[in-house]
Every structure is written in structure tokens, then in C-alpha cells.
Amino acid sequence: MSRHYEICILLNPNSEKFRSEEKMKNIAQQIQDRFKGIVHRMEDCGNRILAYNINKCHKARYFLLNIEVGDNAIVEIEKELLRFDEVILRHLIVKRKEAE
Question: For the CA atoms of the chain, what is the radius of gyration?
């Protein structure tokens, strides 16, 4: 059974713009290929100021992904793609009722 999720990813703004866009395209491609998911929306929200510093950064580049994957795939996505990447400062995964 597949469910809808929204993933908010904060990327290090000190990395090059091209590198961060390629990183997000790579994550979306892996979700489709490896985890048999559907990416409904990938949105670049740009750079924003953070409320507090994260890894000595006061700004972050925000990306939103709306995806549809199986129940067990979201744990693997978090573990393999998001958790141990030096470009990703923080991520948040929220379960949604439907894709937007």
C-alpha cells in the first residue's frame, strides 16, 4: 500500500547552486527507481534565514518534495538518502492524505 508524504529538506547554502539542484534531482530519481515511488512535485523554495544556526550556517536552501511510496520505503529513504549526507542540514517527513 502506498502513502503520500511531503519531505522538506534544508541544504547547505555554501554548496554550489548547481550541486544542490543536482542533489535534489538525484534524490527524486532514486525514489522513483530504487523505491518504486512517484514524485508528484519538486519545488525549490530558495534561500531563507534560519531561526538559529545549524552547523555554523545562518541560511539554508529549502526544497519540498511530494512523493508517493510504500510504507516501508520511507524508512529506507530516510536512512539511505537523507540522514548521512553532508550537504543536507535537516529534513522533515510528514505523512499527507493526498498529493498537492
Answer: 13
Q: Hey, is 91 helix, strand or coil?
A: strand
Check residue 83 and give its pLDDT. 87
Taking only the tens place, the pLDDT of each residue in 59-85 is: 999 999 999 998 888 889 998 888 888
Is residue 58 exposed (0-12), middle (13-18) or buried (19+ Cβ within 10 Å)?
Answer: exposed
Q: For Cα atoms 79, 38, 17, give the angle at the middle one, nearest 5 degrees.
A: 65
What's the whole-model pTM score? 0.87
Taking the C-alpha atoms of residue 10 and residue 87, their distance in angstroms, rounded to an integer, is 9
Q: Provide DSSP, 35-56.
A: S--EEEEEEEEEEEEEEEEETT
Angle at 46 (CA atoms; ends 44, 47), nearest 5 degrees: 145
* Res 22 pLDDT > 80: yes
